[in-house]
Amino acid sequence: MKPIRVAVAGANGRMGREVVKMLVQDETFEFVRGISRTQGGKDVGESIGLGSLGVTFSDSLESALLENRPDVLVDFTIPAAVKRHAEIALEMGVRPVVGTTGLAEGEIAELARLSEERRVGAVIAPNFAIGAVLMMMFAARAAKYFPHVEIIEMHHDRKLDAPSGTSLKTAEMIARNRPEIRQGHPEEKETLEGARGGYRHGFRIHSIRLPGMVAHQEVIFGGPGQTLTLRHDSIHRESFMPGVKLAIQKVMNLDRLVYGLEHLLEE
Ligand code: NAP
Predict the structure, then answer these.
(1) Which NCBIfam families does this one have (predicted)?
(2) Known catalytic membership, residue 206
(3) Is 159 a catalytic residue?
(4) Can you give the CATH number for the domain in which 242 is found?
(5) Is the CB of 101 under 6 A from ligand 1?
(6) pTM of model > 0.85
(7) Which of 27, 39, 184, 201 gets the highest tally of CB atoms within 10 A of its CB?
(8) CATH number for position 226
(9) Both 142 and 221 in a single domain?
């Protein structure tokens, strides 16, 4: 089997470096190019502490895709850049696997349309950690019996978007199973703005940003006389790599966009 050719946008970032490390250790993949606005021309391996890889950074996504013809583009960049990156990839017949969070619902829908139009597969997953995906699936199941719920998500303080993509995706999955109810006291008043967190799908999401954290989430359900807490912790970025690997393999056989790793897991 020919290895899957993969380029990585944001290869010099925290997640991008982890992806490059995973790709070069796995012979089913060929890491063909890193994209970085700041490291153009440098050897990727030397820049990220892996020793020379003979693969350089490109400072232009278009040129990298034209010159290296990857099968897949993995993107871990920033919310402001990711949509354009995915569009460029789809237009050039390269399958995007997107980990960058912060895409709006409408933007995901536009990418889904483009992917379908071009018949080029794509995966967008706000969380590639299998444990986190299971936590989301369990939360969706619990919501049927425990409609009173709040989410607390905790991340490192370099994260740009709040609330996290994972919490929004969890809220969406819960909402599909949760009976419509009015939650909390009808006369509740916030005396400190933001104290009750953000409101989505009829319940609250709270975001914590602190150094020392990676990516953590608690989904707390409450019912008469009991609470149920589901918690997932990513304590190292390697936790995301089995999911990224699975998405790269699965996207090769897709001809549309899949949003959420849960759709790629075997039952
Ligand atoms: P990071 O360390 O800041 O890396 C982001 C990289 O994006 C930077 O190295 C930067 O590289 C590049 N970049 C910045 N601005 C850019 C622009 N305007 N155009 C193109 N590239 C740009 O961030 P991170 O911690 O790796 O996180 C990256 C993204 O992944 C975030 O959205 C985060 O929420 C998400 N994330 C997702 C998962 C998941 O499982 N889906 C897990 C963890 C994190 P250059 O300066 O070299 O260009």
Answers:
(1) dapB (TIGR00036)
(2) no
(3) yes
(4) 3.40.50.720
(5) yes
(6) yes
(7) 39
(8) 3.30.360.10
(9) yes
